[in-house]
Amino acid sequence: MQAKLFGRRLMRARKNRQFTQLQLAERIGTSATTVSRYENGLSFPSRRRLNEIAHFLKVDIDWLLTGIKED
Predict the structure, then answer these.
(1) What sign results for the dihedral spanned by CA atoms 19, 51, 41, 37?
(2) Given 1, 33, 36, 45, which residue has the most CB atoms within 10 angstroms?
(3) What is the rounded distance in angstroms from the CA atom of residue 11 to the CA atom of residue 17?
(4) What's the mean pLDDT in 19-33?
């Protein structure tokens, strides 16, 4: 369940920045299929890849993982 919630937040952050799965994938050095798997809760990124995603999408890692924003 946690991976699915992460995937929903990832998709929301990606769409808010108006990037396609392919654009995100190219930026973080993976495939669009992998990004799709993340977004659908079928896979979870490594710690390094998670850092890259958060940096590129300009979101907090804690928010991606828990849905809680830091104040």
Answers:
(1) positive
(2) 45
(3) 10
(4) 97
